Amino acid sequence: MNSDVCEISPPSSLWLPWRPVEGESLYFTRGEGYRVYDSNERPYIDCNSGALNAICGFGRDDLALAATKQMARLSNYDMSVAANEPAMELSSRLQHLLPSPLASIFFANSGSEANEAAIRMCLDYWTNRGEPKTRIISFAPGYHGTTALTQHLSGLPLLKHPYHAPLPVTRVELPALGEAVRSRAGLQTLLDSFEKALSNESAGRAAGVVVEPFLNVGGGVRLPDGFLRGLRSLCDKYEALLIVDEVFTGMGRSGRMFAVEHENVTPDIMTISKGMTGGYVPLSAVAATETIHESFRGQYPLAGLRYGHTTSGHATACAVALEVLNIMEREAIVSNARQQGEALLERLRPLTCLDHVQDVRGLGLIAVVEMTDQRAAALVLQRARELGVILRSQGASVMAAPPLVIDTSGISQMTFVIQESVKGIQ
C-alpha cells in the first residue's frame, strides 16, 4: 500500500453504510471539480461522483449560493398545505425536458422514496380504475433502493431481508452475461422472459414492470439495444404500466438527458434522483402521465396520492436543482458526458484481450471493466486508489462514473490508472 494514501479508522460514533464494522476508510476533507482531497491534501480523481450524484463536480459556489438565497427567503414549507415557488418552477422545467406525455411531477427526497412512490402510484392507478392489480415484475439483479418495499423488488443477495413480502413480485433473471446479453439472441431471450412473466396470470395480473435502463448495482450491465422498445410494446399488450428507474442514468449520465431517449421510449412512470441537485442536497422526483395523475381525482381525504414526506418538494433543494439545470445548459454537460464517455470506453476496450477481463462496456459517462471474479475487482480498486483514482465495484465489475464536467486531461489520467491497475492483476 502506498504510504501517501491517508487511511484512518472511523470513530465508533459513526456507523458507515454498506461497510463492515471493522476496517479502515478513506477520509475526504474537500472537493474541487472532479477531484476530492484527503486530510493530507492528496488529490484523487473521483470516478464515484460522490455517491454517483455529483454530476456538476465539487466546490461549486453557484450551487451553494442558490441554496443560501432560498434558505434566507423560505427554507421550506409542508407541501400538503402549500406549494413553494422553486418546486413549481422545477416541475415546469422538468416537464419540458421529459418525454411527452410525462407531465405530472411528484417530489421526494431519495431514489428509494421515489421508487416506492412510483410503485404506490402504479397500484393505486389500477385501483382508481376499478381494476385492482398488485403484482410487479422486475429484474432479479435490479436495484431500486433500500426501503422495505424497494428491497423486495430486487433479487440481489445483498438486499435479502427478513420482512414479510409487501406485494407479489416476479423477478426476471438475466439470460446471459457480458457481451452475450447485448446480442440479438440475448435481446430476444430477455423479451421472451418478460413476456412469460407478464402473461402468467396464475401469479396475479401484472400491475407494472420496473426496470433500470442500465443495471447499476446488479453488475454494471448494459442492456441490449431495443430492450426498452420491446418492453414498452409488451407492457401495452398486457396492460401493465412501464416504470423506468432513471435514478442513476437520468440527468445526463447516459449521454442523453434521460436514458429512455436512446430508444425514444416513453414510460408511464419515471423516477429521477441522483444528479438532480448535483449531490448538494437530497431530492428526487417521480414523473407520471397525466392519465395516471387524473385517476387520483376525488373527494378528500380518500382521494389523491396518500404518500409524502416532511421534506417532499423541499424549497431549498428545488432551488438548487433549478441551478443544476442552468449549469447543465450553460456548460453543455450532457454533450460533454457523451463525448468524454465515448473517448473513455474506446481507450478501455483493448483490455478485453487480457485473460482476467471478461468484458468492457459502457453507456454515456459510465465505463465498466468486468473481471473474472470479485477478488480481481477489489485488487483493481485498491491499486487505482494508490495511484489517485477512486473507482467503485459492483460484484466482479469495476465501474468508472466521474462527474459529468470531467475534461480531456482527467479522462486521460483516469484511463492510464485504470489500464495500469487492470494490467497489474496477477
Give the helices and strands, then pairings.
Layout: E1 7-8, E2 25-26, E3 28-32, E4 35-38, E5 43-46, H1 49-52, H2 61-74, H3 85-97, E6 102-108, H4 111-128, E7 135-139, H5 148-153, E8 169-172, H6 184-199, E9 206-211, E10 214-215, E11 221-222, H7 227-237, E12 241-245, E13 269-272, E14 284-289, H8 290-294, H9 315-330, H10 333-348, E15 357-362, E16 367-371, H11 374-386, E17 389-390, E18 392-394, E19 397-400, H12 408-423
Parallel strand pairs: 5-17, 7-8, 7-9, 9-12, 12-13
Antiparallel strand pairs: 1-2, 3-4, 4-5, 6-14, 10-11, 13-14, 15-16, 16-19, 18-19
Summarize the structure.
This protein is α/β, with parallel strands linked by helices. It has helices at about 50, 60-75, 85-95, 110-130, 150-155, 185-200, 225-235, 290-295, 315-330, 335-350, 375-385, 410-425; strands at about 5-10, 25, 30, 35-40, 45, 100-110, 135-140, 170, 205-210, 215, 220, 240-245, 270, 285-290, 355-360, 365-370, 390, 390-395, 395-400. The chain folds into two domains: about 5-55 and about 330-425, Aspartate Aminotransferase, domain 1, CATH 3.90.1150; about 65-330, Aspartate Aminotransferase, domain 2 (3-Layer(aba) Sandwich).
